[in-house]
Design brief:
By secondary structure, this protein is an alpha+beta fold. The chain has helices spanning about 75-85, 105-115, 120-140, 150-165, 175-180, 185-195, 200-220, 225-230, 235-245, 250-259, and strands at about 1-5, 15-20, 20-30, 30-35, 40-45, 50, 55-60, 65-75, 100. The relative contact order is 0.11.
Length: about 260
């Protein structure tokens, strides 16, 4: 993931470049022309630039200067695994240069712009995989097929759930949890969501928030200590997540429980 700011304008020449990996880039500000093997497009805020690995492309600004994109790059092996599930084929390639701005992608774009405010690597990994999955589903008209979890998958996810429960106050990441479940990261994310009904990060966040809320209600432990004991890396993230979930700040929640 990278935050890319371009300051080129109409006076600057265009150069042919190459996508090393599969690229999905959210356009945050500005507009520009994009040409690649799958066609030409005018990229605009809210749209997604799409690039297949190993293909050449050009970007140009002939009507204004500058743009900002938040780009996500996926290795061929990982993208093939996601495509097999979300698009129905591990050989899937983008047939269009972009995914235009649309109402059903608004929440996704908000998550992209606020992702940097979350200090959790697990949150970032979780989101990147969901982003690729969502874009693939939109561009392939949902041709992928999701099957019911097997008994083996449920057992493996159960092992990961027990690990999360025991180590919720410690830093966790998808690679560790996937290793416990003996799955690839994407297979783990997909299986976890089918078995539990949420992503691993959403489940972990909910568990941490519930534990913090109980601690606030039954003790006089300082709010900062409650946040760190629950596994949050900083107080501001904890306050934001707590208010979004419970509708109160941690201090307000504690006062409401003492009345």
């Amino acid at each position: 993931m990278s935050d890319f700011i371009c300051r080129f304008g109409p006076q600057d020449p265009t150069f042919e470049e190459q996508h090393g990996d599969v690229a999905i880039s959210a356009v945050i500000a500005g507009s520009f022309h994009y040409r690649c093997e799958s066609g030409r497009a005018l990229l605009h805020p809210g749209s997604f630039l799409l690039g297949n690995a190993g293909t050449c492309f050009e970007c140009g600004h002939d009507h204004g200067s500058g743009d900002r994109c938040i780009a996500f790059h996926f290795s061929g092996e990982l993208f093939e695994e996601i495509a097999a599930s979300a698009a129905g084929s591990h050989r899937y390639r983008f047939a269009a240069p972009m995914l235009p701005a649309r109402a059903d992608l608004t929440t996704l774009l908000v998550e992209i712009e606020t992702l940097a405010a979350d200090d959790s690597r697990m949150a970032a990994e979780d989101f990147c995989l969901r982003l690729a999955e969502t874009v693939l589903e939109k561009t392939s008209d949902g041709r992928g097929r999701d099957t019911a979890p097997t008994t083996s998958e449920r057992r493996r996810i159960g092992n990961a759930l027990r690990h999360i429960e025991t180590h919720a106050d410690q830093p966790l990441d998808l690679a560790t949890l996937a290793g416990i479940a003996c799955m690839s990261k994407y297979h783990f994310l997909r299986s976890f969501r089918r078995v539990v009904g949420s992503t691993p990060y959403q489940y972990l966040l909910g568990l941490r928030l519930r534990r913090a809320a109980v601690n606030l209600a039954v003790t006089t432990t300082p709010v900062a200590d409650v946040a760190y004991a629950a596994g949050f890396g900083d107080l501001s993230t904890f306050n934001h997540r707590f208010r979004a979930n419970f509708g109160y700040s941690p201090s307000q929640f504690r006062r409401s429980r003492s009345n």
